[in-house]
Please model this.
Amino acid sequence: MVKVKMRKLFLCILGFMVHLVHSAAVSISNKEEEASIIFAGDISMDKPIRNGNESACAYSDLMKGMTKYFTSVDYNLVNVEAPFVTRKMAKHQQFPGKGINNMQWEESVVGLVKAGIKGATLANNHMTDFGGDGVALTRKILKDNGIDVIGLSYGNKPPYGKQKPLLKDINGIRIAFLGYCGDIIGECKMYRKGSEQGPALLTKETVRDDIKELNKIKPPIDHIITFVHWGKEYMSIPNEEQRQLAIELRKLGVKVIVGSHPHVKQGHEWINGTLVHYSLGNFLFHPHYTFMGELKGRKDKGELHQRAIEQSKLSRGPAGFTELFKIILTKDNIKAAYFLPVRVHIDNTTSCLYPKERKENDWKEICGPSDDNCYYPRTAPKP
Model:
């Protein structure tokens, strides 16, 4: 009788252990079928962060408050909007009449590394400010530090060569990343000329051809994500051109569209199952008024000065607000999407910038009840 009871007890314990193992296996399996990605906006460690031959700020400290978020997901991607240059390269602007030429010293890459950045788009209207050499150095520095690069095309005159997509296999989910520079008042096309490598330009034909090549890849790509530089600076509402481009990208099969360039946040929406975030705003990027000292002698100095005064107000207004954008993908769909409100703090003594969440881990559902920046319709269609 005792042996029978012991046998039953043993079988119960064994059954319980099998259940635990099975539950753990299911949990692991489910985790492996999800991919989490965080996106952040414009980053430039130019003036006043960059100051002479030494930094006014400790590069490694600038984004340290965000490291826990960047490293909490499977992958992350940001917009690097200033080429890395040497001291010698800094003396030779590709477009001296442009007014604002962004640049950052080579050693400032430590700020990205310490923050845990894994990927960067270089498709923006400042990447060729110091010519193809600046682009090449930027690409090299990022790759040497383990940071992936998207958004580049090759050749010094149109039509430029196709960009090489970034392909990532994250927990069994195959994702292709592409970066594009939209025709921002002609700047993307204008400043792309003359450089052996530079931002990939956003046209219907370019994207169509890129995605046509992606569709040939075996095993097939599960999701296509684009990081697009578009819109008008300091406008908090996307324009009609942006929305029409988003519709075209969706038709071509893009699942997630992330925007940059306006330097302020713009809203987001679902377009027939494609999630569009029109602009993440500045993440580590001073408003343009900080550059005005470089415009001495210009005939339009008065007009620029007045513009500088107006924009300076934005450093503690719209341009000082940004967010982290997080998505969770399954093999077939977008399982969830969230944003984390972030405030860019400015040190009044050093003018250093420090992005910091307004409330720790206060992630909000995209187009959820507490999201007041979602366009109609507020929910994604069921898969």
About this structure: Residues 2-32 form the longest helix (31 residues).
